[in-house]
Amino acid sequence: MRSQGQGKRSSTRIISGQEVAPRKSMGQNFLVDDSIAKWIADQIEPDGAPFVVEPGPGLGAMTQHLVGRSQQLLLIEKDHSLGPELQKRFATREDVMVMHEDATKVDTRGWYRHGDVRVIGNLPYSVGGEILKHMLTPPTPVTSAVFMLQKEVCDRLAAKVGQDGYGALSILVQRDWDVEMLRVIGPEAFNPKPRVDSAIVKMTPRDPRTLPVYDRRTFERLVRLGFGQRRKQMKNLLPEAPGGWQALVDALGKPATLRAEELSLEEWVQLSRFYENRTGADAGQKATEMFDVVNERNEVTGQLTRGEVHARGLLHRAVHVFVINARGEIYLQKRSHLKDVSPLKWDSSAAGHLDVGESYAACAIRETREEVGIEISGTELAAELSAGEHTDHEFVELHLARHNGPMKPFPEEVACGEWFSPETLDSWINARPQDFAKGFVSCWKAWKNT
């Protein structure tokens, strides 16, 4: 592509003897202002980044300002003319990959092995929301994102309580992401010119410690019900609250005539917790919980509290469970930030310490119920691991269970979870063992060697 006067570019190109123009059916408006394209590319800070993804690169207005700056650049283009052209254009570059696929359906699980995953895109108006939802809904490997979207959508993404555009989208996005409006872009930067302004937002993961834990499904259901008919009072939209509506609004410090847009994100979380009967402060793992202490032969020598066992590095017992589905994928959980060991690390489907006098098999069944909310009738012993630094001083049994989902993670225990193929996990573990709880890595190696 060549510039055509004052940083502008033509919106058409000749590809395989045919002129390619923006497709209305795909919501395409090509960015043709080169100075703006470069400015947007700079916002994702691509220099030296391990992995940058650009969904919908189109004619490559931003791509040209990304190539050669990150360690690896992935372009995802659905268009049947532009996709193959991009593949040809970058065929000789080892640092650029092109996927001729739909960005709303691409499998992102292989991205975890890169660690730092940055996504940037001038998203089509017609599917921008779907791309955002697909790539940013937890669990996700994405660590930061810069998107250009219709300004009205960006306003809604970034809006706080009391501001124009504040609604269900604002709350459902901001529970996981901090959203910053960077810049408004007028129609003249595109060809064809859209009828509305565009805007650029930057999104970074929200610190999970800034909100108390809550059940995500209950939260989303209540938010959608509350904003379903904005003019109606919430007492006419939400299900009966435990103890009645007045008890709920009293707990929130709000009037009985409350409407959805009057609650902040934090208050919506409080409301959801009220429906879940989570009325107290978050309770992490209890340091007073009793464990069996064992010797180097895994023989019980006494009982001490969790806090003392961990503080003194004493030998004790634990079980890990790999839940495997019909596709051969393994469910991994991301540990809650409330965990006293390896918070926010990826771990086995379920794992935990044996209660005093409890068997490994019984513990495996109990932990799968308590952590990921499934009932299994039995497990298969897959490996036994001796205690040491590699297991955090635990004698571990690894058990296998079969289940196809769904999972119902308990938020005090599990932040989120995902199914992974063994091949994806091998690649990720080899590249970034620091992303995982130490005991899981040891169990994984033991299982692979059986």
Task: Characterize the structure shown.
The structure is a single chain. By secondary structure, the protein is α/β, with parallel strands linked by helices. Helices cover 25% and strands 24% of the residues. The chain has twelve helices and 20 strands. It has helices spanning 34-43, 82-89, 128-136, 151-158, 168-174, 216-226, 245-252, 265-275, 306-312, 360-372, 422-431, 438-448, and strands at 13-15, 18-20, 30-31, 51-55, 73-76, 96-99, 117-122, 142-150, 177-185, 190-191, 198-205, 290-294, 300-305, 316-324, 330-335, 346-347, 350-353, 380-385, 394-402, 414-420. The chain has a seven-stranded mixed β-sheet with strand order 6-5-4-7-8-11-9, sandwiched between helices. Strands 14, 15, 16, 17, 18, 19 and 20 form a seven-stranded mixed β-sheet that branches. A two-stranded antiparallel sheet has the order 1-2.
Could you outline the blueprint of secondary structure elements for this entry?
Elements: E1 13-15, E2 18-20, E3 30-31, H1 34-43, E4 51-55, E5 73-76, H2 82-89, E6 96-99, E7 117-122, H3 128-136, E8 142-150, H4 151-158, H5 168-174, E9 177-185, E10 190-191, E11 198-205, H6 216-226, H7 245-252, H8 265-275, E12 290-294, E13 300-305, H9 306-312, E14 316-324, E15 330-335, E16 346-347, E17 350-353, H10 360-372, E18 380-385, E19 394-402, E20 414-420, H11 422-431, H12 438-448
Parallel strand pairs: 4-5, 4-7, 5-6, 7-8, 14-19
Antiparallel strand pairs: 1-2, 3-10, 8-11, 9-11, 12-13, 14-15, 14-17, 15-16, 15-20, 18-19
Helix pairs in contact: 6-8
